[in-house]
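Encode chain A's predicted structure.
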Amino acid sequence: MAWRMSAHCFKHLCQPTQVKRVTTLFDYANTCLHDSTVDELLNLTHEAQQRAKEGKLTFTSHDVVRPITQVRFPQRPILLAPREMPRRKLTTPAGLNAFFHAIAHVEFVAIYLAWDIIYRFRGLPDTFYLDWLRVADEEAQHFSLLRARLHAAEMEYGDLPAHNGLWDLAQYTAHDVLVRLALVPRCMEAHGLDVTPPLIEKFKQLHDEDAVAILTRILTDEIGHVALGSTWFKTFCEQQNLESETHYQSLLLTYYKGGPLKGGMNQALRLAAGFSQTELIWLEKHSH
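Encoded structure for chain A:
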């Protein structure tokens, strides 16, 4: 039943938005980041992707890029430091609801991250922007499925606090697309490839088919998202005559603020997402 509700809710969320009309990709990005509600963000993201598929989206830009500090999030959820977030177990209804709220928040911020890499870094190939627009659209679909799961439990996104660490990462990578690619898709999102498979197995043990379906969908798409990060990181390194593996290591050592890197990496999925064996050996050496 929850899965059917998810599909119904997703269809409802995709109805045309009533916000002001936008025309170029960067108009969409500007509105999504600075002037949209949760539902408008979802609707505009799907609309932009559909227009891109139809060849009706232009890539001209005449606006001045606003500082990342001006990006506007909804008033809820309340954002806390990761260490302040309460810990709950999946074995209780409250714990399950908190888990899905937390994952919904991750996916919601991921929509912003995809739009921000489009908005912030100009003068790149159209294919770069189309790739990250597809990422934004898929992240919006993930969020809608998770929000429908919350609705089935009579909850709304924003009812619980969420952590602010994801957007902090965006803020201190806002000056360089290579830093953004290294730390967001090739670090933060890549960690999702490590932790999601055990979660899927956990929900299989709990006989929660809805959760298994949602997390499997997310994992499948995230492999592709990390792979895009790998491809574009290597492409831009080559254009700048940088050796991609050593530059990746240098950027993580310089900009990663989360302490030691997290170990337990899923090497098979990371290899599928564009990591080299050399990179994985280095990452394991520098993780705990």
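The two ends are 41 Å apart (CA to CA).
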